[in-house]
Amino acid sequence: MIKLTESPFDAAEALRDFEKSAMGAGAIVSFTGLVRDTSKLGKVKTLHLQAYTPMTERGITKAASDANKRWPLDALLVIHRIGDLAPGEPIVFVATASAHRRAAFEAADFLMDYLKTEAVFWKKETTDSGAHWVEPRPEDYEDRDRWS
Amino acid sequence: MIKLTESPFDAAEALRDFEKSAMGAGAIVSFTGLVRDTSKLGKVKTLHLQAYTPMTERGITKAASDANKRWPLDALLVIHRIGDLAPGEPIVFVATASAHRRAAFEAADFLMDYLKTEAVFWKKETTDSGAHWVEPRPEDYEDRDRWS
Amino acid sequence: MARLHFFGRLMDAFGTNTETVALPAGINDTSALRAWLDNERQLGGLLLEKTIRVAINDTIVSEPWPIADSDDIAFLPPVGGG
Amino acid sequence: MARLHFFGRLMDAFGTNTETVALPAGINDTSALRAWLDNERQLGGLLLEKTIRVAINDTIVSEPWPIADSDDIAFLPPVGGG
């Protein structure tokens, strides 16, 4: 399941619901990305996440489908925030369920690499020293290239 | 933090508490291992987990310390059940927090490989066709050997 | 009229997320559009950057790609969420 | 008296998790203990398996390792949780 939301969400509740939906899977991996409270440029006030609907959803759906082809998954969940986020709030939650623990780990890792470098989002960080757009770092692209 | 417990625990609550303890980390990875409801030998009735205190705790504490040396972690949690478990109950919960998402993924993966092959536990599965002790599979040892 | 979309730092540079333009005669592919728009808005080459991709009617294209006055044209700086 | 501990399938084979024994004269290392105990309990070689490790006073040892009548001796089949 893929969900973009303007409202804050609770990662623990998301894990609880996912665990129910994945009954019998054996192994569940989750990734939670949180807005940091400090960046290189100072104390973070807000992080703005911009998407381009429906391209953003379509891309994530395709990545989820790629993950399902590549690993034997029983369930998969991606929740991604858009709009204005405060420090400490979850930006992204990815969960994967499988009978095989390494499949669950790899699929979650793969999806996060996709989300960091290919998912159609733009991020603007506002700190006490101003605002700037954050683009992927070289190591994000290197991480993604592990899967090709 | 390392915790062995005879009582059932809630993985979602564990993630919630961990997220609080890891404030400002940016990336949190969790692994939940659940008792499966079916095995090769039939429908699972119970899984019994035996430990050898204090050797079991000492080993996990050492593995956690190895993970902390190897990756820049802000927090780390291992909860492991002992005693009798019913299908669907969590056996193990591992969570790692870091500023770097790949560090969080790798440390959780590493700890699970340790827990599967080196942690001092014995598992007895009772199915409708009888009871047997479950030992690690060859691929569990191969997974572990990735880290050495 | 073509509808243009600007994302990320391009939104700040254009001062808007979207606008409509009448494509002048001769501006009939993405390369010509980039050059014309960058010049007209005095962006100093921002729109010519290779890391900025173009999507036409919701699909990223290999450039240069033909454009028409009825198209939805989006300029996408490097993407990334998480 | 030495205290013996049996885990996993060894617990089932011995019918107990722990017992105390007086080590006979000559049984003064782990190899001798394995052979004597396996023979005495008619385990058919179960205790001679190489995958079974021995811990003395809570520490896994390289065998053969000397044992004394005051030791805590645990027989550990392959471990694994999760």
Shape of chain A: globular
Structural class of chain C: alpha+beta
Strand tally of chain C is 5
Number of domains of chain A: 1
Fraction of helical residues of chain C: 10-25%
Average of the residue pLDDT scores of chain A: 96
Interface with most residues: A-B, 33 and 33 residues
Helix count of chain A equals 4
Q: Helical residue percent of chain A?
A: 25-40%
**Main sheet of chain A?**
5 strands, antiparallel
User: Structural class of the secondary structure composition of chain A?
Assistant: alpha+beta
What is the CATH top level name of chain A?
Alpha Beta
Order of H and E elements of chain A:
EHEEEHEEEHEEH
Radius of gyration of chain A: 15 Å
Indicate the overall shape of chain C. Answer: globular
Q: Classify the oligomer.
A: heterotetramer
Total strand segments of chain A: 9
What is the fold named in CATH at topology level of chain A? Aldehyde Oxidoreductase, domain 3
Span between N and C termini of chain C?
35 Å
Number of domains of chain C: 1
Strand proportion of chain C? 15-25%
Structure summarized in a few sentences:
The complex is a heterotetramer, with two copies of chain A (148 residues) and two copies of chain C (82 residues). Chain A is an alpha+beta fold and 148 residues long.
